[in-house]
Amino acid sequence: MQAKSVLLTTLLLAAAVSLSGCTCCCLPSGTNGGPPPNAAQVEVAANTSLTPWLTQAVADFNKAGTKTASGKQVYVILNPVEAGQAVADMTAPGARLPALWIPDSEVWTDVLADRGQNSFQGDRVSVATSPLVIAMWRPIAESLGWPGRDLGWLDIGSLAADPSAWAYYSGGQFGPALRLGHTHPGLSGSGTSTLLAVVQAAESQADAVTTEEIQRPIVQASVQAFESAVAWFSSTTDQLGQTMRERGPAFLGAAVVYESTVIAYAQRPAQPPVGVDGNGDPQIVPIYPFEGTFVATHPACVNGTANAETQEAARLFREYLLGPEAQQAAVANGLRPVNSSVTVGTPLDAAHGVDLAQPEIVFGSPTVSTVYAVQDVWQSARKDVNLVMILDKSGSMAGGKIASLRDAAIQFVRQMGDDDAITIIVFSDRPTVLVRHQQVGQAREEAIRAIQSIEAKGSTALYDAVGMGADIIAQSHSSQASNAMVVLSDGLDNNSTTYKFDQKLIQVATANDTTVFTIAYGSDADQKVLTDLASRANGNFYLGSEADIAAIYQEISAAFGGSAGIGR
């Protein structure tokens, strides 16, 4: 089933290595010079929201020199990866399994088992917990009545979908719309939990919903309404929190993440004014939806098919994580401990907006069938994208550059939804339309053949190509679809005759609420122009090379709701 696409105004994909075709989900990450000789290595795949804690814990554990019964030093290698992406990686041909997997919840080990890999079913122990919350800038939350007024899943979705209601409650001081974000449900456990939480709220129940309840028209309408308001999709929970902090309240007013992620990016120093961080930016606080929410239990699951010594080493690291020192470090990183002997204090306190009495209502754990069912609802709820792909085919693109571009662009088109629309423009001496606003389901092979035919020659008319793409969007836009341009160039404009880079081009490119993603292909590209264009259009700028151009296109594909992770 082709995933229907939604325009997401930017994406920074932390799992780019996996998406670019790697079949191993456990790659070294910051391992202090590598393992000692003859070490018992423990590859740990863990949810990205645990990264701040586990990075420290891995370093401390490796430094301690813990040994197995046979005398081998245990050496841990950390790979942050979202649950859905981990499932996709571990079921890929030739994949190597980690010794220890720490997803959001046990349902992901069940999903993996449903796909034929049951190595993590037998030994699962929670190492920390964190509730799913709505991260919001404190001034925005306060304008909505927080903390005195309860806010819920459906409230936030309604405010994000209705600019007039948003203007009434916010007083118009935070922009024309509440920009809402969550993670890609096919890649991230928090994204799937977000959709299920909306279903639970629509059903007004705490017990786990069934597939039949998910399929009710009124429930699907609630998910549709919520998802139509989403302005941003990220592929990892940690990256969503980071991007919210870096790009500010105007870019993203609220995002669904874990409580620990809110704390990680609240950036509240010791003595700032209340609600403000040390840089003068407002604080991010967690909102606990009154309907209830899910709690990530982060089970550390030992690979039952690993050899005995590797399993022993994995359990030694897990025991360390459960000990007082590591659990206190978990608290310091905003996680709720599972070791009852550990004192809970800062930053899990009121100064950071944390309420340890919340959530009052915890939703029942989902099943494999409900995970799949809500994926189907998500795909049907997505807003289609009206996409213009603009590709540089000037002479400087000859050789490996143009070959890599063709391969990446073709894969991108293969992952688009049937109901999306695509326009392909190439430019050298002047821009040329290869495919003009065709529905992807009917024109996918035509688009692929057009991309395969691209040859590099000529000059660089970048600005005219952007202007042409904007003109086509102006002629074809619809309230039922989101507009986007993906622009790739490897050089400076030297041949445009109609446009130059000025306010007029910016206005043309960003008209019709178009989001622009730009890729500077190599160091000779005009990075300043491409960065400025993307930032003005609520998009994202990428600096690419032949080695990573495919990964960048995969990132953007995921941003449009393309096929990724466990999405079907």
Brief rundown of the structure:
By secondary structure, the protein is α/β, with parallel strands linked by helices.
- The count of strands amounts to 17
Helix content: 25-40%
Going by CATH, the architecture of the largest domain would be 3-Layer(aba) Sandwich
Question: What kind of oligomer do you see?
Answer: single chain
What global shape is seen?
globular
Number of domains: 3
Q: In angstroms, what is the radius of gyration? A: 24 Å
Q: Which residue ranges are poorly predicted, with pLDDT under 50 across at least 5 consecutive positions? A: 1-32, 268-279
What is the CATH superfamily label of the largest domain? Periplasmic binding protein-like II
Structural class: alpha/beta
Biggest beta-sheet profile: 6 strands, mixed
Break the fold down into its secondary structure elements and pairings.
Elements: H1 16-19, E1 40-46, H2 51-64, E2 74-80, H3 83-90, E3 100-102, H4 107-114, E4 124-126, E5 130-137, H5 138-143, H6 153-161, H7 163-170, E6 180-183, H8 189-203, H9 211-214, H10 217-228, E7 230-234, H11 237-247, E8 254-258, H12 259-266, E9 284-287, E10 295-296, E11 299-302, H13 308-322, H14 324-332, H15 368-381, E12 384-392, H16 400-414, E13 421-427, E14 431-439, H17 440-452, H18 462-476, E15 481-489, H19 503-510, E16 515-521, H20 527-536, E17 541-544, H21 549-559
Parallel strand pairs: 1-2, 1-3, 6-7, 6-8, 12-13, 12-15, 15-16, 16-17
Antiparallel strand pairs: 3-11, 4-11, 5-8, 5-9, 5-10, 13-14
Helix pairs in contact: 2-14, 3-4, 6-7, 6-10, 8-10, 10-15, 11-12, 16-17, 16-21, 18-19
